[in-house]
Amino acid sequence: MFPCRISDPATKEQTARVWNIDAPELILSDTVRHIRALLVELNAIIDDVPPDPGPRRFGNVSFRRWYDTVEAQLPTLLSRYLPERVLSFPTSSDVAPQTELLSYLLGAFGSSQRLDYGTGHELSFLAFLGCIWKLGGFSDDSAEDEERGIVLGIIEPYLLLVRRLIKTYTLEPAGSHGVWGLDDHSFLPYLFGSAQYGPAISDTDETPIEGSLPNAPDPADVVKLAAVGRERAPNMYFSAIGFIYDVKKGPFWEHSPMLYDISGVRGGWGKINKGMIKMYVAEVLSKFPVVQHFYFGSLFSWDEDPEAKAPPDTIHITNQPSQQQAKNHQAETGPAATGQQSSIKAPWVAPTSATSSAFVGTAAPWSKRSTVTSPSLAFPSQTEQRSISQTPRMPPTVHARPLPQNLSEKQTTSAMPPPTRAPWAKD
User: Fold this and answer.
1) Cα separations in angstroms, 241 against 119, 212, 234, 323, 376
2) Neighbour count for residue 124 (Cβ, 10 Å)
3) Are 200 and 4 in contact (CB under 8 A)?
4) Please, are residues 241 and 263 in contact by the beta-carbon 8 Å criterion?
5) How far apart are CA 231 and CA 239, in angstroms?
């Protein structure tokens, strides 16, 4: 995808041939043209399945109808547009190549259950193209021309189809890191698009790690709407940036801070492309949430490498107890070991003896009262509680205060305290 350096033998001048999306020099093989026609058929099905106009919070449920329609028509479409040598390729597996191709292609348009789309589905489409390559479906005459034809003639139309699906059925990002991710849905357009603006190379040159075309736009132009509108048609990188502007509002550095940081790289588009390759390996191919949904078969098999290095331990893994420690802890403190029902306690609670007879009273933290250990304040036993409950209770005895001896009835009455009356009471 890097521009080609062309030397004129007569004038010895060197020029660069840039591979834009609409480049007239682009060579498309028959297989590439047929797969483009297949994507056109899938795009037309969107017109037959309009989105549901009802209220919704997440993805539109009509995407499931589009997905079911594609699933029903896909075997016929593959038989129509893929070469016969691909579908009938002899393999040692019990699974036919068409079955694996169907699985990868159907998984390239999002999840009909979760109504989302992400880089894992994009990887599935890349595996679909890889299967066709391994089955001999693409031309072997010129590998460089065929690779450019696959990227610009198949992957870019596929991305346009996916963007229409996202906007039509409001598909959610699948496993997105939010603003801290590169993009909510795609990764490949940034990888290939940055290579389009890299320095020109010859057939014998290695992949450049820095530099840019002399007339390439500045990476910081991603924040300029005029530059994005001008460059999104010929370049895959700016095409993806333009889609972000279509679906998001607000300042670019707020909703896409990682792309904004990348736009400040001083090494040019070559250095950006090098970083994109490393990031794709780390954030897509090496991420378990992405690979866990990838199907492995005979064309892309799961083979363990005995010399592979173990993944580095994260802080979450290192802080977790081992399985043997968990079993020993369960045997020592579990219900079967103590004969009692286990309770949930905070880690800082110290174990206390269940048979202690001391009663700890409630007191303020600054109180100097010590722990009450008097037997008289200890909780009574069950026998004592039973005897107390069976003892009959007598009403309290009221002792009247004696009156003086030498008082008349009138004086006796006046000596008594006055009764309590309401302010409005009458005699």
Assistant:
1) 16, 19, 13, 47, 81
2) 20
3) yes
4) no
5) 7
CA distances from 255 to 57, 222, 268, 345 (A): 21, 13, 23, 43
Residue 59 is classified by DSSP as S
Per-residue pLDDT of the chain (427 residues; tens, 9 = 90+): 888 888 777 777 788 888 999 888 899 999 999 999 999 999 999 999 999 998 777 899 999 999 999 999 999 999 999 999 999 888 878 888 999 999 999 999 999 999 999 999 999 999 999 999 999 999 877 888 899 999 999 999 999 999 999 999 999 998 777 777 899 999 999 999 999 999 998 888 888 889 999 999 999 999 999 999 999 999 999 999 999 999 999 999 999 999 999 999 999 999 999 999 999 999 999 888 888 888 898 899 888 888 888 767 766 566 766 666 666 766 666 555 444 544 455 556 555 544 444 444 555 656 555 444 444 444 555 555 555 555 555 555 545 555 555 545 555 444 455 555 565 655 5
Chain length of the chain: 427
- The residue among 252, 199, 247 whose CA lies nearest residue 221 is 252
176, 164, 204, 166: which is closest to 40 by C-alpha? 164
pTM (2 d.p.): 0.72
In this structure, which long-range contacts are made by residues 91-94, counting pairs with CB atoms below 8 Å and at least 24 apart in sequence? Answer: 91/298, 92/298, 93/297, 93/298
With contact defined as beta carbons under 8 Å apart, do 154 and 34 qualify?
no
